[in-house]
Amino acid sequence: MKKLGLLILSGFTLMLSGCSGINVLDPKSSTGKDQAYLIWLSLAIMTLVLVVVFVLFAYFVYKYRYSKARKDYKPVDVDGNRKLELTYTIIPVILLIILAVPTVRITLEQSPDTSASQTPEDGTTKIEVTGRQFEWEFKHENGAEVKDELVLPEDEDIEFNLHSEDLIHSFWIPELAGKVDVFPNKELTYIIRDVERGEYEGKCAEFCGVQHTNMTFSVKVISKEDYRAYINDLK
């Protein structure tokens, strides 16, 4: 028993060792908040279903538990119950619709696009992102290129034009939005809307070689005035 306890404790320790201080459920952009909303919505629906199932399970186990008074009891054979059958068919369909409608809408709005816009819209900052073993390169609108450091203006939409120079990488800033796979010979456009000021960590979320763990980059979201000064300094 003692060995089993140590084994379980070791397993939990290993799982926790992979955790970090990144909180993907407290996103700092409108895009990330929509994605977190889907997670919370699905979790709420699953919790509701789980509670109902366990309550019914406990109720029927108690109600029909074995006792000496019931040892010779034979239940009545029932062909079916139309109302009950409709109830446990219609309710799951309604729950799936509640989950499916916002999921489809948000997914279609946020899915990366293969067509890159030539000129950014007003209030949009355009940045070209290149992934390669084992670094990220960011090219700003003035042509300046920076490696492993991404500086962004706050409260603006950021349009990332993503591509890889070698193999598949995955562009991910956990506290801003979900991950996007980056492919060689293919350019994807991904927009993160209304980023909030702060410092974050970006990384490659697709195993890409022996130095994959070091393929990280820092993210700083600063005021628009400071961003313009930063761009000018890069020139």
TrEMBL record:
It is an enzyme of class 7 (translocase). Keywords: Copper, Electron transport, Membrane, Metal-binding, Respiratory chain, Transmembrane, Transmembrane helix, Transport. Binds a copper A center. PROSITE patterns: COX2_CUA, COX2_TM, PROKAR_LIPOPROTEIN. It catalyses: 4 Fe(II)-[cytochrome c] + O2 + 8 H(+)(in) = 4 Fe(III)-[cytochrome c] + 2 H2O + 4 H(+)(out). It holds the Pfam family COX2_TM. The keyword Transport applies. It is found in: Cell membrane; Membrane. The chain crosses the membrane at residues 37-62, 83-104. InterPro entries: CcO_II, CcO_II-like_C, Cupredoxin, Cyt_c_oxidase_su2, Cyt_c_oxidase_su2_TM_dom, Cyt_c_oxidase_su2_TM_sf. Its main location: membrane. PANTHER family: CYTOCHROME BO(3) UBIQUINOL OXIDASE SUBUNIT 2 (PTHR22888:SF18), CYTOCHROME C OXIDASE, SUBUNIT II (PTHR22888). NCBIfam families: CoxB. Subunits I and II form the functional core of the enzyme complex. Electrons originating in cytochrome c are transferred via heme a and Cu(A) to the binuclear center formed by heme a3 and Cu(B). This is Cytochrome c oxidase subunit 2. It comes from Salinicoccus siamensis. The gene is coxB.
